[in-house]
Amino acid sequence: MIKYWKQTPQGYTPIESYEPHCWINVTAPSPDEIARLCREFEIPTEVISDILDPDERSRVEKEDDWLLAIVRIPIHDREDEVPYGTIPLGIILVKKAIITVSLKEGALQKEFLDNRVRNLQLTDKAAFILQVFMRSAILYLQYLKEINRETADLERNLQKAIKNTELIKLLLLEKSLVLFITSLKSNELTLERIQRGNLLRMDEDDRDLLEDGIIENRQAIETANIYSNILSGMMDAFASIISNNVNIIMKKLTSLSIVLMIPTLIASLFGMNVHVPLQSSPWAFASIALGSCLLSLLLALAFVRRKMI
Fold first, then answer.
1. Which uninterrupted H or E stretch holds 4?
2. I need a labelling partner for 60 at 20 to 30 A (CA). Which of 111, 195, 230, 238 fits?
3. DSSP secondary-structure letter at 103?
4. CA-to-CA distance for 154 and 151, rounded, in angstroms?
5. How far is 102 from 90, CA to CA, in rounded Å?
6. CA-CA distance, 2 to 16, in Å (whole number)?
7. Given 3.40.50.300, 2.60.260.20, 1.10.287.70, 3.30.460.20, which CATH number is that of 2-244?
8. What is the pTM of this model?
9. Is the dihedral of CA 17, 18, 20, 23 positive or negative?
10. For the chain (length 309 residues), average pLDDT per consecutive 10?
């Protein structure tokens, strides 16, 4: 899908076709749309194909007529097996337009479309790329806070759990953190390359924005590493807790089986077809039943005192 956006004082307004200095937002394009983009803006087909590769790393590449910057951005989809993941977002700068290409539209694009990025002009292409890196790092931090809250909820449930459901959820969250760390480090390398090279024409404000983006990205890396270490330790601890809970339940069931075995044993002995005591007494059944109950009760009290039940 290809959407064209024009910047106005009120924000971004959709337009029907290309206009100079517009933003072309491309999401999951069809082969025909890819061919049209490449033909209209003289972009190699391989560039779009690289962006649509879900495993493509962050990088920046410059040619005579265009510049490509790929950013790994975070996404959140509860319907996916891994709720938090990352995808590449490609930013292609051509002479009079900015083109963004991604597999799916996430929260990052919505922040730009909702005009949450202040004082950003589409004519300042360097600032647009740097703002994408900046907002991406901020979005990583927001998702990391959500992961931390979900981890705390699972931690409370795990204290009484004996199944693997919560542990599997923690495992998926840990996988999300690994994806975040890998993508953030890739973004960091791209930012450092932009900082060292002359790929973008930047004024003093753009350089300050670049420094802020690097700081935010590093903060997100440190936060993700901390949460990942905490989550790994928590999974090991709660795996032991779940195993201990199972052992406690098995111990209680074994104790109850022993208590219930006494009446069964006595009933079996007095039910044999041989001469047994009290077989001629009218009080035999009551005596045997009462004695069995008393023995079971005494054994149960002994187990309770030893905290085995």
1. strand 2-8
2. 111
3. S
4. 5
5. 6
6. 10
7. 3.30.460.20
8. 0.76
9. positive
10. 82 81 86 87 86 88 85 85 88 86 85 77 83 90 90 75 71 89 91 82 84 91 90 77 79 83 80 71 77 83 76
